[in-house]
Amino acid sequence: DIFRQQVVGMSYLHIGDNTDADVTCARMHGLDTLQIYSAVDMLEISSMRGLDELPVNLTERTMLGMLLATVLNSPFALQASLGKPSVAGGYAFDYCFAAPLLTAFMFWLIAECSGRYDRILWSARDGYVFDRMYVLLRQRFPQEKLPEAMYFYTSRMAAIPAALQTQDDIRYAAGIGFAGTAEDMLRQRFFLHDEEILPRGESESVTEYVLRHETIILQRGAELRSNYLRYVSSLGIGSQERLAFFDFVSSGTCQMCLQDILGCPLQGFYFIHFVEDYVKKQQLSAAAFIESGFLYALKSYLSTNYLPIESSIVSGQPTLQGFSTEGKPIYIAEKRKESELQYV
User: Fold this and answer.
1) How many angstroms separate the first and last alpha carbons of the chain?
2) What is the pLDDT of residue 292?
3) Distance in angstroms (rounded) separating the CA atoms of residues 25 and 18
């Protein structure tokens, strides 16, 4: 009333976000109103409606608040999207969805490892972010006496050939999907030199052809294994240590191969763990945060859509090819574009 007495106008518009003070009371005194919706109000009229009924504790309510503040903290957030909240860009996606998931995974893994294992191996390249997170957590909670941990260089490319010790190992390695010719496989998976590769017979299967190179493959595997062990020796890992091995999403190939290389068991911890119909993999000791299931019978939506998360947590280094005779990492040429590395 005072405002209308002091400011003469044909009409008056009151803008605010409080239903009682800014809408009901304003209308009672002759003012037109425009309500600005809060993030919570926006949630109720969006396709995420009902999300506020799911949190069961302070942590989950905090995560919901972070999501609303990032995605719906504007009265115009739904204007161009027909009621569908828009997550704009990689940072917002990771902040709202990936970071809470990965943080929850980290606390789960720590709870599983504390008091049971002496060291956690954060496998390259997916372990890069977790290694950094773990350092911060150990600084923040020194009283928890968390296990030692380190970023551990490995890859399927490096581990598979270094683990080959029997004909059955070669058969399995030859059966893993490969884009290229059998000759390319001998070069790129088994690291044979051109002069060591035999001509392929017309009726030979890939496995039969590869097995004709058994002697040189096992010899090369022994050399690569020796180089790998030099790297492991440089880390100061004790022979009696209880080791936990991390991989993000995997069927356990690196864990299986590393057990053969190191000659000791590893406990695998995975965000998602797929199980292959292969005896040595089924015998692995492994636990998964999200789920375990057969490779072609996935259960969860996340199991088929984890790549956007995985692509943003990996190291900026290229894939590990193997190790030098001094035990130093050797990398393949970087395949990611500059824009992809900037995204990471």
Assistant:
1) 57
2) 67
3) 10
Q: Which residues of 200-223 are buried (b: 16+ CB within 10 A; e: fewer)?
A: beeeeeeeebbeebeebbbebbee
User: 172: Cβ–Cβ under 8 A, 6 or more apart, which residues?
Assistant: 278, 280
Tell me the whole-structure pTM to 2 decimals.
Answer: 0.85
Please state the rounded mean pLDDT for residues 109-121.
Answer: 93
Positive or negative: CA dihedral 212, 214, 215, 220? positive
- CA-CA distance, 316 to 324, in Å (whole number)? 21
Mean per-residue pLDDT, 211-218:
97
The contacts of residue 276 (CB under 8 Å, 6+ apart) are: 251, 252, 282, 294, 295
Angle between helices 167-175 and 214-234 (to 10 degrees): 90
SS3 for 8?
A: coil
Mean pLDDT score, 6-31: 93
Please determine, for residue 119, whether its predicted confidence score (pLDDT) is greater than 70: yes
**What pLDDT score does 238 carry?**
85
Note the helical H segments in 141-203.
Answer: 156-162, 167-175, 182-188
Locate 45 and state its tokens. 């009229």
Place of tokens 């809060």: 38
In the chain, DSSP assigns E strands to: 13-16, 32-35, 119-123, 148-152, 243-250, 267-275, 285-294, 320-323, 329-331
Phi-psi region of 115 (alpha: psi -120 to 50; beta: other; left: phi over 0): left
Among 241, 252, 231, smallest CA distance to 153 is for 231
Whether the CB-CB separation of 22 and 14 falls below 8 Å is answered with yes
pLDDT score of 138 more than 80: yes
Residue 323, phi then psi, degrees to nearest 5: -135, 150
For 243-302, the pLDDT digits (tens) are 999 999 999 999 999 999 999 999 999 999 988 888 999 899 999 998 766 665 667 788
